[in-house]
Amino acid sequence: MFLKRCSFRRFWPVLLVVVSITALAAPVAEQGLAKGPIQISADTLYGKNKPQQQAVYTGNVVMTQGDVVIHADKLTIDAAGGKVRQATAVGSPVTFTMSSAQRHGYGNTLVYKPASGEIVLIGNAHLWQGKNEINGQQVTYFLQNQQTAVTGNPGQRVRSVFYPAAAGRSTSAGKP
Protein backbone atom coordinates (compact mmCIF):
# COMPACT_ATOMS: atom_id res chain seq x y z
CA MET A 1 0.00 0.00 0.00
CA PHE A 2 1.23 3.50 -0.84
CA LEU A 3 0.80 4.84 2.69
CA LYS A 4 2.96 2.14 4.26
CA ARG A 5 5.84 2.85 1.89
CA CYS A 6 5.85 6.59 2.58
CA SER A 7 7.76 8.02 5.47
CA PHE A 8 6.71 10.97 7.53
CA ARG A 9 9.74 12.94 6.29
CA ARG A 10 8.80 12.64 2.63
CA PHE A 11 5.50 14.39 3.25
CA TRP A 12 6.46 17.15 5.66
CA PRO A 13 5.60 19.84 3.08
CA VAL A 14 2.09 18.40 2.78
CA LEU A 15 1.92 18.19 6.55
CA LEU A 16 2.69 21.90 6.81
CA VAL A 17 -0.20 22.68 4.45
CA VAL A 18 -2.59 20.40 6.33
CA VAL A 19 -1.54 21.75 9.71
CA SER A 20 -2.09 25.27 8.39
CA ILE A 21 -5.55 24.27 7.20
CA THR A 22 -6.43 22.60 10.49
CA ALA A 23 -5.16 25.56 12.51
CA LEU A 24 -7.78 27.68 10.78
CA ALA A 25 -10.51 25.15 11.48
CA ALA A 26 -11.92 26.18 14.80
CA PRO A 27 -12.94 29.62 15.93
CA VAL A 28 -11.16 29.69 19.27
CA ALA A 29 -13.89 31.28 21.38
CA GLU A 30 -16.77 29.21 20.04
CA GLN A 31 -15.61 25.61 20.49
CA GLY A 32 -16.65 24.97 24.09
CA LEU A 33 -14.27 22.38 25.47
CA ALA A 34 -12.26 22.11 22.23
CA LYS A 35 -10.36 25.37 21.85
CA GLY A 36 -7.46 26.39 19.68
CA PRO A 37 -5.69 24.74 16.77
CA ILE A 38 -6.02 21.08 15.87
CA GLN A 39 -2.69 19.28 16.25
CA ILE A 40 -2.07 15.84 14.74
CA SER A 41 0.82 13.39 14.92
CA ALA A 42 1.04 10.02 13.15
CA ASP A 43 3.45 7.57 11.53
CA THR A 44 2.41 8.48 7.97
CA LEU A 45 0.44 11.13 6.12
CA TYR A 46 -1.06 11.24 2.65
CA GLY A 47 -2.58 14.57 1.62
CA LYS A 48 -4.30 15.93 -1.46
CA ASN A 49 -5.91 19.20 -2.48
CA LYS A 50 -7.90 18.10 -5.53
CA PRO A 51 -10.65 17.15 -6.14
CA GLN A 52 -11.10 17.85 -2.42
CA GLN A 53 -8.88 18.86 0.48
CA GLN A 54 -8.16 15.69 2.42
CA ALA A 55 -5.44 14.34 4.67
CA VAL A 56 -5.19 10.70 5.76
CA TYR A 57 -3.02 9.95 8.80
CA THR A 58 -2.18 6.37 9.72
CA GLY A 59 -0.34 4.62 12.52
CA ASN A 60 -0.45 5.72 16.16
CA VAL A 61 -2.53 8.80 15.37
CA VAL A 62 -2.98 11.41 18.10
CA MET A 63 -5.22 14.42 17.45
CA THR A 64 -5.49 17.21 20.02
CA GLN A 65 -7.61 20.35 20.17
CA GLY A 66 -7.58 22.09 23.52
CA ASP A 67 -8.30 19.42 26.11
CA VAL A 68 -9.85 16.97 23.61
CA VAL A 69 -7.39 14.17 22.77
CA ILE A 70 -8.21 11.42 20.26
CA HIS A 71 -6.14 8.25 19.69
CA ALA A 72 -6.77 6.17 16.55
CA ASP A 73 -5.25 3.81 14.01
CA LYS A 74 -6.35 6.02 11.09
CA LEU A 75 -7.65 9.59 10.86
CA THR A 76 -9.15 11.23 7.77
CA ILE A 77 -9.48 15.02 7.75
CA ASP A 78 -11.90 16.49 5.20
CA ALA A 79 -11.58 20.23 4.65
CA ALA A 80 -13.21 22.85 2.45
CA GLY A 81 -12.02 26.39 1.90
CA GLY A 82 -9.18 25.89 4.37
CA LYS A 83 -11.50 24.80 7.22
CA VAL A 84 -11.85 21.33 8.68
CA ARG A 85 -15.36 20.06 8.04
CA GLN A 86 -14.94 16.67 9.65
CA ALA A 87 -12.36 14.38 11.20
CA THR A 88 -13.15 10.67 11.02
CA ALA A 89 -11.08 8.31 13.17
CA VAL A 90 -11.15 4.52 13.13
CA GLY A 91 -9.40 2.10 15.42
CA SER A 92 -9.55 -0.91 17.63
CA PRO A 93 -11.04 1.08 19.35
CA VAL A 94 -10.76 4.85 18.88
CA THR A 95 -10.41 6.52 22.29
CA PHE A 96 -10.81 10.09 23.44
CA THR A 97 -10.53 12.14 26.60
CA MET A 98 -11.75 15.58 27.62
CA SER A 99 -9.93 16.51 30.80
CA SER A 100 -11.90 19.64 31.75
CA ALA A 101 -15.23 17.77 31.51
CA GLN A 102 -13.76 14.65 33.14
CA ARG A 103 -15.07 12.58 30.23
CA HIS A 104 -13.54 9.75 28.25
CA GLY A 105 -14.90 7.22 25.82
CA TYR A 106 -14.32 4.81 22.99
CA GLY A 107 -15.95 3.31 19.92
CA ASN A 108 -15.06 1.64 16.63
CA THR A 109 -15.37 4.96 14.79
CA LEU A 110 -15.27 8.55 16.01
CA VAL A 111 -16.51 11.48 13.93
CA TYR A 112 -15.53 14.96 15.11
CA LYS A 113 -17.25 18.01 13.62
CA PRO A 114 -15.40 21.14 14.81
CA ALA A 115 -17.95 23.63 13.46
CA SER A 116 -20.87 22.16 15.42
CA GLY A 117 -18.76 20.86 18.31
CA GLU A 118 -20.00 17.27 18.00
CA ILE A 119 -18.16 14.09 18.86
CA VAL A 120 -19.96 10.99 17.56
CA LEU A 121 -18.88 7.53 18.68
CA ILE A 122 -20.20 4.73 16.46
CA GLY A 123 -20.10 1.00 17.10
CA ASN A 124 -19.68 -0.37 20.62
CA ALA A 125 -19.79 3.23 21.87
CA HIS A 126 -19.09 4.02 25.54
CA LEU A 127 -18.88 7.37 27.33
CA TRP A 128 -17.87 7.93 30.95
CA GLN A 129 -17.88 10.87 33.29
CA GLY A 130 -16.17 9.78 36.45
CA LYS A 131 -17.63 6.35 37.29
CA ASN A 132 -20.90 7.04 35.46
CA GLU A 133 -21.23 5.28 32.10
CA ILE A 134 -23.56 5.23 29.12
CA ASN A 135 -23.27 2.98 26.08
CA GLY A 136 -25.05 1.99 22.90
CA GLN A 137 -24.52 1.68 19.17
CA GLN A 138 -24.00 5.44 18.81
CA VAL A 139 -23.19 8.11 21.39
CA THR A 140 -23.21 11.75 20.32
CA TYR A 141 -21.70 14.31 22.67
CA PHE A 142 -22.30 18.01 22.03
CA LEU A 143 -19.34 19.98 23.36
CA GLN A 144 -20.98 23.40 23.43
CA ASN A 145 -23.94 22.54 25.65
CA GLN A 146 -22.53 19.31 27.14
CA GLN A 147 -25.54 17.22 26.10
CA THR A 148 -25.52 13.57 25.09
CA ALA A 149 -27.72 11.54 22.72
CA VAL A 150 -27.50 7.73 22.66
CA THR A 151 -29.07 5.14 20.35
CA GLY A 152 -28.96 1.39 20.83
CA ASN A 153 -28.33 -1.40 18.38
CA PRO A 154 -31.47 -2.66 16.61
CA GLY A 155 -33.31 -4.83 19.13
CA GLN A 156 -31.09 -3.69 22.00
CA ARG A 157 -31.54 -1.03 24.59
CA VAL A 158 -29.28 1.82 25.66
CA ARG A 159 -27.50 1.12 28.96
CA SER A 160 -26.59 3.66 31.67
CA VAL A 161 -25.06 3.38 35.11
CA PHE A 162 -25.16 6.43 37.41
CA TYR A 163 -23.67 6.53 40.89
CA PRO A 164 -25.19 8.74 43.58
CA ALA A 165 -23.21 11.87 44.41
CA ALA A 166 -21.36 11.85 47.72
CA ALA A 167 -22.53 14.25 50.40
CA GLY A 168 -21.39 17.79 49.66
CA ARG A 169 -20.88 17.20 45.92
CA SER A 170 -23.12 18.45 43.15
CA THR A 171 -25.44 15.78 41.71
CA SER A 172 -24.90 17.08 38.16
CA ALA A 173 -21.13 16.60 38.32
CA GLY A 174 -21.33 12.85 37.75
CA LYS A 175 -23.78 12.55 34.84
CA PRO A 176 -22.48 12.09 31.27
From TrEMBL:
It is found in: Periplasm. It holds the Pfam family LptD_N. Its main location: periplasm. InterPro entries: LPS_export_LptA, LptA, OstA-like_N. Residues 1-25 form the signal peptide. Involved in the assembly of lipopolysaccharide (LPS). Required for the translocation of LPS from the inner membrane to the outer membrane. This is Lipopolysaccharide export system protein LptA. It comes from Acidithiobacillus ferrivorans.
